[in-house]
Design brief:
By secondary structure, the protein is α+β, with helices and mostly antiparallel strands. The protein has helices spanning 4-11, 28-50, 71-81, 96-106, 218-227; strands at 16-18, 24-26, 60-62, 86-88, 113-115, 119-127, 138-141, 144-155, 160-162, 166-171, 180-188, 202-210, 232-239, 242-249, 255-261. The strands form five sheets. Strands 7-8-6-11-12 form a five-stranded antiparallel β-sheet, with no helix packed on it. α2 packs across α3. This is Heat shock protein 70-like protein. InterPro entries: ATPase_NBD.
Length: 265
């Protein structure tokens, strides 16, 4: 609703002025104030990492990426951490991320350990426990009371994941004569969700495993369901930028598989 010059005058900051050449002029102090919130967050994050029980014996801190060329950031990082770490700023610092991406494209195994960005797991039924599970989660199958929507976690957010790491869970169907087993995979930015309906939890994939009509006669099926419960093995295999998920019917050997994007979902 006004000219830039009038707005700057109303703002009344001595470090920000409008010149007669039609340009906004910021003093060095005003420029530093623009960087201050971001630099402070970076220092806080580095401090939290260094104070983590999982981090011990760190001696060097490398600054990489385009922002690492900033003298303001370099000065503040050195001022905050040079007494406990040796600060190293490589040549061509702004190209470091690009070079890393190219190396990863040539050989994805060059990164053999990651930290999981999210908590991953599946939705399962557990035996319903009164006064512990919400009553609205109670369902009845084969005269048994179950609690639905339990988030069974395979890996937690920020957990170290090695190339080829496998997490296996074993489940039994809720019904003896169940014809299909539907396994839904979920993720969350928190490590504390209890139910897949909790805030922030979202579905990322589903596997459908047909459990009958796989070469068994009706008599065989009845004998199997009478004598033992079916076992379903669900596994996550971590590698590269994908998670491979599978569900195996141990009785029949039938298996279904899918992949989930590890970095973006």
């Amino acid at each position: 609703g006004s000219t830039v010059e009038a707005a700057i005058r109303r703002y009344n900051d001595p470090d920000i002025k409008w010149s007669t050449q039609g340009m906004m002029r910021l003093t060095p102090e005003a420029m530093k104030r623009l960087f201050h919130p971001t630099v402070e967050k970076i220092k806080t994050t580095i401090g939290e990492i260094l104070n983590s029980p999982d981090v011990k014996g760190i001696q060097y801190l490398f600054l990489v990426g385009g922002f690492a060329e900033s003298p303001i950031l370099q000065h503040e990082i050195r001022r905050a951490f040079s007494n406990i770490l040796k600060i190293i700023i490589p040549q061509d610092v702004s190209l470091t991320i690009l070079k890393g991406a190219v190396l990863f494209g040539l050989d994805p195994t060059i990164v053999n350990v990651r930290r999981s960005r999210l908590t991953y797991g599946v939705s399962v039924l557990n035996r319903f426990i009164p006064d512990h599970h919400p009553i609205e989660k109670k369902i009845i199958k084969d005269n048994n009371e179950w609690c639905a929507d339990i988030f069974d976690k395979f890996v937690l957010v920020d957990q170290s994941i090695g190339l080829g790491d496998i997490v296996v869970r074993k489940y039994t169907p809720a019904r003896y004569n169940q014809a299909q087993c539907i396994i839904s995979f979920y993720c969350s930015e928190s490590d504390k969700p209890i139910y897949v309906t909790d805030p922030g939890v979202r579905k990322i994939g589903t596997l459908v495993l047909d459990m009958f009509n796989d070469g068994y006669s009706s008599a065989d099926q009845k004998m199997n369901t009478k004598n033992q419960r079916r076992e379903i093995q669900t596994r996550m295999v971590f590698g590269d930028t994908e998670i491979k998920v599978s569900a195996l019917d141990v009785t029949t050997g039938k298996c279904v598989r899918a992949t989930i994007d590890f970095l973006n979902k």
